[in-house]
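Appendix B, example 12.
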Amino acid sequence: MRALRANLELFLFALGLVLLAAGCIGWAIGNSMLENVPWIASTVIGIIVSTAWMVESIREGRFGVDIIAVLALVGALLVGEPFAGAMITVMLVTGRVLEARAQQRARRDLSLLVQRAPRTARRVTDSAKNDGTAGTAGTKGTVTVVEVPVEDIRRGDHMLVGSGEVVPVDGRLRDAAVLDESSLTGESLPVDRVAGDTVRSGAINAGAAFGLTATSEAASSTYAQIVRLVEQAQATSAPFVRAADRIAVIFVPFTLLLAGGAWLVSGDATLAVAVLVVATPCPLLLAAPIAIMSGLSRAARIGVVVKGGEALERLAAGRVLLLDKTGTVTRGEPVVVDIVTAGSTFTASQLSSWAAGLDQVSPHVLAGAIVKAARARGLALTMPQDVVEHPGYGIEGRLDGRLVRLGKASWIVEGDIPAWVDQVRQRAALNSALTVFISVDGEPAGAFLLEDPIRPDARRMIRALRTAG
């Protein structure tokens, strides 16, 4: 329905321009019939659509300025000024087309959010629980994985979430997991969760497959509620509120009074129509959509997604700004800020070369940062052999004849914790950094510290916001 309406308004816009141009051609060649017929047709179209819009506004409980446009168009026909009516028609339809474009932009962001929502889930079933033999000593059922619509998931169901899949419903982890929760929290760095932790739908599995016990149904899960809130906001708020509509209660009666006074004093109905034509808020109807469209486009180009025109308008009244760190005042991607060596056995360049060589084949989100750091040093990377990924812990493989491990400290460092490991952990906690430890031939050799750096323009942005109030 929305697409049909948008296409209709676009057709009316094109038709209005064609009729206006045709009338101008007739005027230029001195053909009065070719001049007046297209302009009259355009004015009649304007009367029809403006009346429809006026009725729609009244049904929605809004007393808008469309009534002035209708009266101006009718008056233009009655006093023999079809050109003025044709111009008003084009301006009115242009405003509607730009408004529809703003609505379309806002709905596109919503559609992307809805499309990302999982449609199916993989439910783990045990045949022993469903064939009447459950509870029998020594009975062992067959575990199967069945793909079902996400709406069929119930509390207590066991599910399997594969690598790269979106968590379908809120649940409790049955295994350790590495999750990308950026769509929920804005934090771009992965989060390690242990068995028993609660996870929310919408997070992405950034590691190996894991088991999940559902604690809610799809309709009441976190991601579904986010989608529902945005849908409600789109349904209840227009892309923008036209400036003329805000003062319509005063503006419309005043305009009608002024037009009537001009007619009464002069005795010429043309002057009354002239007042209505001048008062028709075409500049406002055009200016608001153009300003909103420009604002939304400019914001989108720099990575800011605005839900709609009304949100952009309300932003002007804001005096308090809350910023989260990741991706807002920071770059949103981790970088290696330091390489700590355990002693003098290996250099930082050697550790960087081996770690990056191993991470070339790793899907982990931190792997790219380590590879990028090594290439920035100009190091040559070799392809690893016998690579084994240990989900939730790290990766190991052979490079240059050595067994290299890369991952969590608890996996790399066994037994007594060396002093340098404690120092690395304290430094990471102080700077909100992540750590990746490396061992060579079974011996802890060092650690990589990764941080999400402050954006170079963050200070300037904060100063500009303060200056703006």
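The two ends are 42 Å apart (CA to CA). Residues 129-139, 236-241 have pLDDT under 50 and may be disordered.
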